[in-house]
Amino acid sequence: MGGHLLAAGRQLTVYDPRPEAMRLLIERGAAEAAGPREAAERSDVLLVVVVDDAQAREAVGAALEGARPGTLVAICASVRPDTCRELAEAGAGRGVDVIDAALVRGERGAEEGALVLYCGGTEAQVARLRTACEPFTEAVVHVGDVGAGQIAKTANNILLWSCIRTDVEVLRLGRALGLEPARLRAALAIGSGANRPLAEWGKHRLRWPHKDLEVALAVADEAGVELKLASELPDLMAELTVEDLQDLL
Description:
Elements: H1 2-7, E1 13-14, H2 19-27, E2 31-32, H3 36-41, E3 45-48, H4 53-66, E4 72-75, H5 81-92, E5 97-104, H6 106-112, E6 115-120, H7 123-133, E7 137-144, H8 148-176, H9 181-188, H10 196-199, H11 209-223, H12 228-238, H13 242-246
Parallel strand pairs: 1-2, 3-4, 4-5, 6-7
Antiparallel strand pairs: 5-6
Helix pairs in contact: 4-5, 8-11, 8-12, 11-12
């Protein structure tokens, strides 16, 4: 993401607790911040790309101490919708706009400059983010109020991991019955079973299925919605490796 911003001539300040994660961007002209607070002090738009809710609270909390009124803070991690609302309320008390902008398409999307952001906030806030993130996005989608982006990302995650697991099973079945996986994928790509993970087979890195599904099942339980299929996915995904997917190329 940072590389695409620098290539587009944007000013960029970066912070990561691991210095090696910043090195290549700093060598290309990014400014180094000592922490989230300093990054916010130097920025009009701040992107928070972390792992979980605890890290989001820590990073945004520190950033709010340095952010000027009018700063836009976008939570790009996959976290709970209520975490985003909590942080948006904290930001509002300081005149800072905190929205959620959940990343879709993962590492490959970032590398290719083709990420999709599912956003929760006002139309004006999302429009501002769309302009700022144009160099590394294919689409910045406004789906509702703060937290709505995370709901859309959760739905997307359930479908992603469901498709990958089901794709593995049908490709294994096809091969056992005499069809080469590549030929079967080509046939399925134009059928009613077509799905994006199948079309991009062999590129998936299986980074976060358990975290994604843990969030999905927790919010579903709190909403009183039973997800029978999704509830089986954590164990089913735990059985799969990247090598399993490569075996079905």
